[in-house]
């Protein structure tokens, strides 16, 4: 149920704000897992973050399909949140220069992409261990558009 609510909450604003006349638009969901090192605690500290997964892409840009994904970055955060940057790709879909804002369970990831005007991912991280949090399952929904 949480997955359905998450995807519906992300897709509704995209559906109502993306013009039907856009030259191209793609949507992607990513399922995977990742690690944060040395691990989230109550004290904010630099964290190496990475995750891998599978993207399911649809759209008008000629890139529908299923792709392997890989993302890496550095975030200064605690279990309460933080900021940082990351980059990655899902097959031919690049997500470069991503700014990350982390809260306790979600990351908002805004990316620039040389071949698109807009790229954004919203990711839900679910910890799979505690004290400190170092392992996560990852679910992202995103979109990219080119005018």
Walk me through this protein's architecture.
By secondary structure, the protein is mainly beta. The chain has one helix spanning 2-17, and strands spanning 24-40, 45-59, 65-78, 81-90, 93-102, 106-113, 116-127, 133-146. The protein has an 8-stranded antiparallel beta barrel. A hairpin with a 2-residue loop joins strand 6 and strand 7. The longest helix has 16 residues, at 2-17. The chain starts with a helix and ends with a strand. Mean pLDDT is 77; it is low at 1-22.
Strand content: over 45%
Q: Please give the largest β-sheet.
A: 8 strands, antiparallel, barrel
Oligomer: single chain
Question: Helix proportion of residues, in percent?
Answer: 10-25%
Class from secondary-structure proportions: mainly beta
Global shape: elongated
Mean pLDDT across residues: 77
Strand order of the largest sheet: 1-2-3-4-5-6-7-8
The rounded Rg comes to: 15 Å
In whole angstroms, how far apart are the ends? 34 Å
Helix and strand succession? HEEEEEEEE
Low-confidence stretches: 1-22
Number of strand segments: 8
The total count of helices amounts to 1
């Amino acid at each position: 149920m949480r997955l359905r609510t998450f995807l519906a909450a992300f897709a509704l604003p995209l559906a109502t704000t993306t013009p039907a006349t856009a030259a191209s638009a793609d949507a992607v969901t990513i399922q995977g897992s990742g690690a944060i090192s040395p691990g989230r605690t109550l004290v904010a500290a630099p964290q190496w973050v990475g995750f891998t997964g599978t993207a399911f892409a649809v759209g008008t840009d000629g890139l529908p399909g299923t792709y392997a994904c890989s993302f890496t970055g550095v975030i200064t955060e605690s279990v309460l949140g933080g900021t940082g940057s990351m980059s990655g790709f899902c097959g031919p879909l690049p997500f470069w220069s991503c700014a990350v804002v982390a809260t306790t369970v979600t990351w908002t990831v805004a990316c620039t992409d040389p071949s698109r005007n807009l790229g954004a991912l919203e990711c839900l991280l679910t910890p799979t261990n505690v004290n400190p949090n170092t392992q996560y399952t990852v679910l992202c929904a995103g979109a990219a558009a080119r005018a």
